[in-house]
């Protein structure tokens, strides 16, 4: 057996370079196309030296906040439909812990992410070292154990040869459609520098193709029997359809059988907005049209979705008598809520269902309901987008962005009120062109994720929409993107506080408190405010100030052109603090049983009334 003597870090980097992936179009590309790095004493000499040695084979992008650069890696993975994986490496201690939030985002959204945080000395000879947290009762524990709760796979390498057992598991998790999620490999800094005679076969190129598990025949046959019994079937498309590359096939399945289509958050933009079967998105941030059909459906076929509470209205959008069929690569998700589970890749599962369904089709009158209901919802959105006096609303801003966006463009958001506007109101013209991070709803993802998406999508314009709160929470990657040369448009909607949480607070009987700046404690008669345009300019961005809706339309057009220069273009606009698009679905939140405000007590009563319509499906 041929061997080569390498350090742990050198072997890891050479292994990453050898991994290849098959993209959706059948072409081949690096599985790990780059590394986001902030170097410190825990990784600069080990991983840092190894990366510099191979600087031509694997690019390194410098971040300015560990959470931000890891979120950029998540955004990159989403934009490549999970076919490529971003890597982030940090020092030990606070640098490592700053990655935990990004790991949570990747875990909740089933997205691949490779995290390589430095760790304390395996030898323990110099203990306690700088940034080491000591546990009095557990000498093996380090801060990196915090990753266990938010990693799909975790390991701590305490000897170089352990890579031989670990690296195949790393590749498995990052490329498996069922187990996909973040991988954390903690790397003690002394072990990074230790050498071992690695077999050269470890560094031979490997091509990773998407696994397409086929379903159990009996499960398919039983699902077909359920579908044939349906008078009002409904198809729900989730992110798994996108990652499988099954969009066209699943839509063709719906066309053959006349089944109306709705989408989840992760499945948004799989269907052209004007498609005759498109009923609109589903759930709280979805559409009244999609929810209308969901309430009447007797059989729901959910493909590639975990049916999160925002999709199901905390399990109130479907009829109590509905029969659920799930097609999912992950058995964990397929068996939820008493569904009839078809465990399979979305493409293979739907193909086999279609084969057995043959020429069966739903009642044409029910099929036609999708387009009719969506037209009603479209008219509602059109009305919301019309110019009005006063500050522009989120719906109007989103409408202006939507009208200027083309088939190759990509839109992104994550938290606050903007997910409801994009999920419910966006009109897609091209498949898989939206990223709404609403699995973890991570404030700050909007800018960092856009940096990653811009790296992954060199054609078209990436536009991210965010509120003032998200901007202030994590904006350092604006400079990272400007420095690296990755242009995108960031639309910063300033509504003077955490307005969507203020809405939740007030709608559930609470007093406005600590959300809008007007309700926050300050010693100033006239508190300071942020000049977002000046701040973005100081980070190397091109800036465009909009004053009103007409001005925004003009400034956004200029920003789209400016982003082509390789620098983020930031458009700032003051927006209305309390105007939202509502889909009419219910959502369970924790309203106190007792409170000093009568309004809260009334909201608690309303909560209990809403829970009466909440259904726990257990199957039949």
What do these coordinates show?
The protein has 620 residues and is of the alpha/beta class. The protein has three domains: 3-208, 3-Layer(aba) Sandwich (Rossmann fold), CATH 3.40.50.970; 217-376, TPP-binding domain (Rossmann fold, 3-Layer(aba) Sandwich); 386-574, Thiamin diphosphate (ThDP)-binding fold, Pyr/PP domains (Rossmann fold, 3-Layer(aba) Sandwich), CATH 3.40.50. The chain is 38% helix and 16% strand. It has 24 helices and 22 strands. A six-stranded parallel beta sheet has the order 5-4-6-7-9-8, sandwiched between helices. Strands 18-17-19-20-22-21 form a six-stranded parallel beta sheet, sandwiched between helices. Strands 13-12-14-15-16 form a five-stranded parallel beta sheet, with helices on both faces. A hairpin with a 5-residue loop joins strand 2 (19-22) and strand 3 (28-30). The longest helix is centred in the middle third of the chain and has 22 residues, at 364-385. It is globular, with a radius of gyration of 25 Å. The mean pLDDT is 96.
